[in-house]
Structure formats: structure tokens, C-alpha cells
Amino acid sequence: MANLYLTEQGSVLRKTGDRLIVEKDGEILLDVQCHKIDTVLIFGNVQFTTQSVHELFEHGIEMAILTRTGKLIGQITSPATKNIDLRISQFNRYGDDGFRLAFAKKIVAGKIKNSLQVMRWFSYNHPDRDFKSENSAISARLREVDDTAQIEQLFGIEGSAAKSYFEAFGNMLLCAMEFPGRRKHPSTDPVNALLSFGYTIIFNEISSLLDGLGFDPYLSYFHSIVYGRASLASDLMEEFRAPIADRFTLYLVNNRILGDADFYSNPKGGGVYLKREPLKRYFKEYEEMINREFVHPRTEENSTWRKCFRIQAETLAACIREGKEYLPFLLST
């Protein structure tokens, strides 16, 4: 199944039978069966009827409401999928400092290993690009993870590794687009805008999945608990940043699918964002990428990135309930 992205400003989401219809000025822009949809994401000034929300609830479909530029405002979800037993176990584990530290080490190590693997893959296809110094620095940070005694120390290790990684990332751009290093809140250039937007989309997907499986998405083990932020989704998305969002950004810019002309600067709040038509192109490419099948490196079964999100969430559930070791998703070597 796929996510439904509604970006046409002024349009209205309605329902007829078990189908969702998007209309604007009396014209039907989209007509889709509910059973083909996982989540509906509404960007900006898109209206929806009460009847359409009822239909989403009946099919267990979540709705995420975002600003036009992709900032999550809130989610509408059915209460039918809540799992109180899992939540009790989740809260109990929060009081176990050893559990939290062990889990945090796994996701930080997973993130760093996947960053290194993305660099290796790129270097294999582009031997003219040199990543030796960055590779050495990141590998050194990885070796420090096992000996870490406090979660706060992991933040320093992860941050240092990320700094070296994004220095290498700039060397992976095969186009003339500028990348001054990682910049966010707001993004200062198109490449950073694509990175941030990719992270936002993955975060929203994982947050909705966690909520649907019965977790409390706001109770995390690595990231700090912040009012209004689904911090557990922040935990789980770390291992997927480089394999999905970073590689997808490189794919879009290195293949000239998106370029500087596809972005605009916000004169009010600052930042750089995708224009309307390029945004639709982005979502088309994203859905193709996120649903493309590949062999899962651990299960050795056909999978997609969306299935991988669920596998990791279920792995975490088993870890919380049964005390099993958490195994992060790792790119194949």
C-alpha cells in the first residue's frame, strides 16, 4: 500500500462509498480506494469532510496534518489500534537505565555503520572520490560506542560522526548544487532542504506506524523527551537516515531530477523549500523508492523500506516485552 499526499491548495478530501475523492472547483483530481492507502498526509490549505475522516477510521488509516513546507502540526488516528500491554511494558523499560543505554548504543552504532556503508558504496562506484580521512574519523567514533557508559556521551559521539559524514556527503554531490555542510532550522539551500524534508517524511511514517502498533510514540529511550515530539520515532529513524533520506537526496540531485530552479526562498520565515510541481515530482519518486523491493539483509526475504520500518518496530516491541536484543537495520556490506 502507499501513502496519499495531498498538496493541491484549496482542494477538498471527500468520501463516496469506500473511496476517497479529492476535488477542487468541481473537478475530481483523485479517486482512490481506501484499502490501497496506509496514511493520508495533508499539506497546507487542504480541507476534508467529517465523513472522509470516518472512512479513514473504519479502515485504520491515519491522517497527518502538516504545514505547506512539511512541518507536522498533528495527527488524527483511530483509537482501535491501541495496545495498553505494550505501553505498560514500554513505560516500565524507561525506568531501566541499563536497557535504555543498551538500546541507545545499538541505534547509534547502526546509524554510524549505515553512514559508513553509504560512503563505501558511493566510493565503489566513484573511485575518484576520496573519503579516507572522513572514513577514519567516523570509524574511530564507532569504536567508542561500546565503551560508552552514559547516553549523554553517545550524543557527542553521534554528533562528531555526523559532522565527518556530512563532510563526505558534500563530496558525493556530482552536480553544481552548493552544500555548505548540514544546515537546518531552517535549511539554507536546496540540498539541505531535501535532507530535512526526507527526514521529516520518514519521521512521520515511523511515528504513525508506532502509534498504530500501540506504542506511545512520545516515550523514547535515546532522544530526550520533548513536549509534543514523537521522540520514539526519532530513535527508530536514526538507522534509516543514511540508507533512505541521504541516498534519496543524492539520487534526486545527481540525476538532475531536482535542481536549484525547483526551490524557492521563504521571505518571511527564511529557509528554502520545494515549489508545488517539483513537490509532486518528489512524492512520486519517493513512493517508487520506498516501495521498491529488495532482499532484507537480515531476514533474507523480499522487503521494501516501508516493510523495514515495521520490522524494526516489531523488533523493538519484542525487545521491550521479552528482553530480546535490539538489532538495528544494517545495510548489507
Automatic annotation (TrEMBL):
Its cofactor is Mg(2+); Mn(2+). Transmembrane segments: none annotated. Coiled coil: none annotated. This is CRISPR-associated endonuclease Cas1. PANTHER family: CRISPR-ASSOCIATED ENDONUCLEASE CAS1 1. HAMAP family: Cas1 (MF_01470). CRISPR (clustered regularly interspaced short palindromic repeat), is an adaptive immune system that provides protection against mobile genetic elements (viruses, transposable elements and conjugative plasmids). CRISPR clusters contain spacers, sequences complementary to antecedent mobile elements, and target invading nucleic acids. CRISPR clusters are transcribed and processed into CRISPR RNA (crRNA). Acts as a dsDNA endonuclease. Involved in the integration of spacer DNA into the CRISPR cassette. Belongs to the CRISPR-associated endonuclease Cas1 family. Pfam families: Cas_Cas1. GO terms for molecular function: DNA binding; endonuclease activity; hydrolase activity; metal ion binding. Homodimer, forms a heterotetramer with a Cas2 homodimer. GO terms for biological process: defense response to virus; maintenance of CRISPR repeat elements. Mn(2+) binds at residues 158, 223, 238. The keyword Repeat does not apply. Gene3D superfamilies: CRISPR-associated endonuclease Cas1, C-terminal domain, CRISPR-associated endonuclease Cas1, N-terminal domain. Keywords: Antiviral defense, DNA-binding, Endonuclease, Hydrolase, Magnesium, Manganese, Metal-binding, Nuclease. Its EC number is 3.1.-.-. It comes from Candidatus Scalindua brodae. The keyword DNA-binding applies.
